[in-house]
Design a protein that fits this description.
The chain is an alpha+beta fold. Helices cover 52% and strands 7% of the residues. The protein is globular. This is unspecific monooxygenase.
Length: 498
């Protein structure tokens, strides 16, 4: 018996060696530049050790080539550093790259079925029906909500200034964005902006916790989805999914008599989809609808909060930028009526403010890459054709820091966006093509409203003995580009009322 066991183990070891040898030579045989893969992790040795955005920037600097070969564990993947190839993958030949590589698995329906993770045909179905909610005209319906929360944010800062403890920017801004996005997604009342407490905020605080196990779960979802069902990993913390279902069912009952009204928020749109699916005998499950509200909350609250955090911190260290921003907001607020001023904020009318936001997103894009998977064999250029099923990663953060496209890329310089001459497909904080972020307009409104309120009411200054922006550490356990430590500034009242 032992002889059979030994023979089997030897045969398996030989097979494993030959398979590894074939895998490790994959990109060499195709003449694609690469770094030697790790025998277990492939190219993913940076995970849990440094932020992926820093690794992507390093890969971009190391290889002055349009693409680089990677291994996701033992699976070959391609990292794209070229705007032209990015344009073809994301737009021109998007039909061949409709789907994303990441997946949350069948064991996690709330995580699997949302617009961020789901693939066709469900993605096309949901995207078509949800897109009308995010037009500029429809988003005007949410102006009152965002304005109210921005006013509460100012009250919160005044209250915090009376205390001696530094303000945790990311935590405070997460309270604000949770209220705005969570209320729009689920239709429930939340007062976290003022005091940091609400049921929705408890949920988003869970989102922000990244221990080793949750870090491994997310790494699997993004880079090795085959493990997700095996270990039953979930995109959202398991404690939050039952809450999402409970809240959704309660709001369905509350709004049932008004389903036929014009869609005023995401929840109205979801209820309408549910009603139409019953009439048309379409297979739209409750989990499919709940997952859209869940991803809108998860995908929006921390990304916008982190953007506000980095922006506030950068502007505090550059008073000339802050003064220019303040004067633009002040002049507009004095020149126009309140209704006209709100319309300008909603309609992209404050040029320099938009430049400040765009520069923040250039330096600190929430995700440093865009992932797609090739449905069919695809010719990258005259030298390389990738096979169907190959994951492709567009290195957005690498291009954001390329001095060819953005001179002195480490410098925070909003003026680089003043003239609109940024080369196409070198700046993609929200993605590009059919799968561009559906909540992009809503994110800008959330950011603009907060910035308008803050800089009309306060001057922000750096605190003593705190690091410069370029010295701040980034989160290592998670995958998004967010601060690792508390970032704080001093808020000095301007003796104005927003």
């Amino acid at each position: 018996m032992w002889s059979y066991v030994i023979i089997t183990l030897c045969a398996f070891a030989i097979w494993l060696y030959l398979h590894w040898r074939h895998t490790s030579q994959y990109w060499s045989k195709r003449g694609v530049p690469h770094l030697p893969p790790h025998p277990i992790l492939g190219s993913l040795t940076f995970l849990q050790r440094r932020n992926p955005a820093l690794w992507l920037r390093e890969m971009y600097r190391h290889f002055d080539t349009p693409y680089v070969g990677l291994w996701l564990v033992w699976r070959p993947a391609l990292l794209v550093n070229s705007p032209d190839i990015a344009r073809r993958v994301l737009v021109k030949d998007a039909d061949n790259f409709k789907n994303r590589f990441l997946s949350s698995g069948t064991s996690d329906p709330i995580g699997q079925l949302n617009l961020f993770t789901v693939n066709d045909p469900i993605w096309s179905y949901m995207r078509k029906r949800l897109s009308p909610v995010f037009t500029s005209a429809k988003l005007k319906n949410l102006n009152g909500l965002v304005t109210e929360k921005a006013s509460l944010l100012i009250q919160r800062i005044h209250n915090e200034c009376k205390r001696s403890d530094p303000i945790d920017l990311r935590s405070m801004y997460s309270d604000y964005t949770t209220d705005v996005i969570g209320t729009a997604a689920f239709g429930v009342s939340s007062e976290a902006t003022l005091n940091g407490k609400s049921h929705l905020r408890d949920v988003t605080k869970e989102f922000m916790k990244f221990n080793v196990l949750r870090g491994i779960a997310w790494c699997s979802i993004f880079f090795f989805p085959r493990l997700v069902d095996i270990f039953r990993f979930s995109f959202f913390p398991k404690t939050t999914t039952d809450y999402f279902r409970r809240v959704y069912r309660a709001m369905v009952i509350q709004r049932r008599d008004n389903i036929g009204r014009e869609n005023k928020d995401l929840l109205d749109a979801l209820l309408k989809i549910q009603e139409e699916s019953v009439k048309n005998n379409e297979d739209v499950t409750e989990d499919m609808l709940v997952s859209q509200a869940a991803i809108f909350l998860q995908g929006g609250f921390d990304t916008s909060a982190s953007t506000l955090t980095f922006m506030t911190y950068e502007v505090a260290h550059q008073p000339q930028i802050q003064e220019k921003l303040y004067k633009e907001i002040l002049n507009a607020s004095e020149k126009y009526t309140k209704e006209e001023f709100n319309s300008i904020i909603l309609s992209n009318g404050l040029t320099y403010m938009n430049c400040v936001i765009n520069e923040t997103l250039r330096k600190y894009p929430v995700m440093g890459w865009l992932d797609r998977i090739a449905a069919n064999d695809y010719q990258i250029d005259s030298k390389l054709t990738i096979t169907a099923g190959t994951p492709v990663y567009v290195n957005t953060v690498g291009m954001h820091y390329d001095p060819k496209y953005f001179p002195q890329p480490e410098k925070f310089d909003p003026d680089r966006f003043l003239h609109g001459d940024v080369e196409p497909f070198t700046y993609m904080p929200f993605g590009e093509g059919p799968r561009v972020c559906i909540g992009q307009r809503f994110a800008y409104i959330t950011l603009r409203k907060a910035m308008t309120a803050i800089f009309l009411n306060f001057e922000v200054r750096p605190l003593a003995n705190t690091p410069k922006p370029e010295e701040c550490e980034l989160e290592k356990k998670g995958l998004f580009l967010v601060p690792a430590n508390v970032m704080s500034v001093e808020f000095v009242p301007r003796n104005r009322t927003f």
